[in-house]
Amino acid sequence: LDGVAFEGGSAEGFSVVLGEGRMLPDFEKGLMGQAKGLGLHFPVQFPENYGAEQLAGKLADFEATIHKVEAPVLPDVDQDFAQQLGVPDGDIEKLRAEIRKNLEREVAQRVKARVKAAVMDALPKVSSFDLPKALIESEMDALAERAKQDLAQRGIDVKQMPIPREAFEDSAKKRVQIGLIVSELVKQQQLQPKPEQVRAIVEEAAASYENPAEVIRYYFSDRQRLAEVEALAIEQNVVDYVLQHAKVSDKDLAFDELMQQAA
Question: CA 263 to CA 257: how far, in whole Å?
């Protein structure tokens, strides 16, 4: 950046899946169509709303060396393939029906997640108040730790790619503000979840597993796991309440766009 390496801007053995959307568009564009062994040099434009304030809106020069290039290989859709995916008799039509059922369930979940995200994103825009500094600091620590764990799971040495804690300040403030607003709405509007609502969420999650009954027992046998489901139910109650009292407009969305953006 301006001829100087910036903190968190370098890494070794970093894996990138082109088209996944986890990297900045210019970074993926710089790698597109390139081959193993090439040394690359390309500009990357950071968006104005980038989390790290010192990088927001800036143009940086990146250098990269491609060590390995891989591509997925699609299998033949035949009886063996169907059996590998859990259809004992290898019936392709049964496989297609199961895939359609799963996709319809996934689409419904993604739409719900997108609506929820839109509602939660709107809450801070209609309410302004001072935030407790201690809560912001705690949330910054939690977000930084989560980012480190994510990098470690991807095989990246965190010491080689340190993440400045301050990069999470804006996100932490937003999350704290949303949390306080949700808490107040739940209290004022009595949006606590009902037992049947909690069970419905568990059953919906369990439906995608081979043994739903086992998954249901897994959740209800542990109070902490059940509390996580109750938190989801509270969030859904808040979303439903806001949608009932807000001006809502529908938007058509292509399947691919929905699956990418909600991932």
Answer: 10
- The residue type at 8: G
Separation between Cα atoms, residue 63 and residue 140, nearest integer Å: 30
φ, ψ of residue 44 to 5 degrees: the values are -130, 125
Supply 132's token pair. Answer: 């407790």
Q: Which two tokens stand for residue 136?
A: 């912001």
**What domains appear along the chain, each with residue ranges and CATH number?**
1-72 (3.10.50.40), 74-122 (no CATH), 123-248 (no CATH)
Q: For residue 172, with 0-12 CB atoms within 10 Å meaning exposed, 13-18 middle and 19 or more buried, which class applies?
A: buried
CA–CA gap between residue 11 and residue 65 (Å, rounded): 11
pLDDT digits (tens, 9 = 90+) for 196-250: 999 999 999 898 888 999 999 999 999 999 999 999 999 999 999 999 998 888 8
Tell the residue number behind the tokens 């109070």, with chain if given: 223
